[in-house]
Amino acid sequence: QQCFVCGESGATITCRERGCERSFHLPCAMEGGCITQYFGRYRSFCWEHCPVQAVEAAPEENTVCLICMDSVGDTKSYSTLVCPVCKHAWFHRGCIQGHALNAGIYRFQCPLCRNKGAFLTEMLTMGIRIPLR
Q1: What pLDDT is stored for residue 9 in this prediction?
Q2: What is the pLDDT of residue 35?
Q3: Among its keywords, does the record have Chloroplast (predicted)?
Q4: Across the chain, which distance is largest between two alpha carbons, in Å?
Q5: Are 112 and 89 in contact (CB under 8 A)?
Q6: What is the pLDDT of residues 36-85, one digit of tens each?
Q7: 38 contact partners, CB below 8 Å, separation of at least 6
Q8: Are residues 36 and 65 located together in one domain of the fold?
Q9: Together in a domain, 83 and 121
Q10: Does residue 89 sit in the same domain as residue 111?
């Protein structure tokens, strides 16, 4: 299979959406706006069919990532995520992924409101890989 992101052959991951023929390499997923869910059936989605956060919040002007303190911009996008509980904690996808890798599943929580359940579920759904330890 040919990767729709880089154009090279050997792409082994296919979009889970029926009828979608897009394939990609796992390392190309983030660059192509794809999401891989690391739980259950380990489903993957291309940029067009990936899940989006149901939270109807948008970052206010001058909103910063709570992890790196850099601006997250003023619109929702693939590269920004928000806590589904407090709706005020915004993160860059890469920053929250780093936080998840350091915290592990037992200590992973929203850095602002400290919610564990809904926050963990939402981040897993949005493709954040959270190791057991």
Answers
A1: 96
A2: 96
A3: no
A4: 44
A5: yes
A6: 999 998 999 999 999 999 888 888 889 999 999 999 988 889 999 999 99
A7: 124, 127, 128, 129, 130
A8: no
A9: yes
A10: yes
Q: Are residues 3 and 46 in the same domain?
A: yes
Q: How far apart are CA 22 and CA 98, in angstroms?
A: 27
What local confidence, expressed as pLDDT, does residue 12 receive? Answer: 94
Q: What is the CATH number of the domain that holds 111?
A: 3.30.40
Q: Decide: residue 65, CB within 10 A, 0-12 exposed, 13-18 middle, 19+ buried.
A: buried
The predicted pLDDT at position 133 comes to 81
| Helix-, strand-, coil-residue percentages of the chain, each rounded to 5 | 15, 15, 70
Residues 24 and 62 in one domain: no
Give me the domain span that covers residue 108.
51-132
CA 14 to chain centre: 18
Q: What is the mean pLDDT of the chain?
A: 94
Residue ending a domain, choose from 50, 67, 82: 50
- pLDDT (mean) for 108-122: 96
Residues 5 and 63 in one domain: no
Domain identity same for 63 and 122: yes
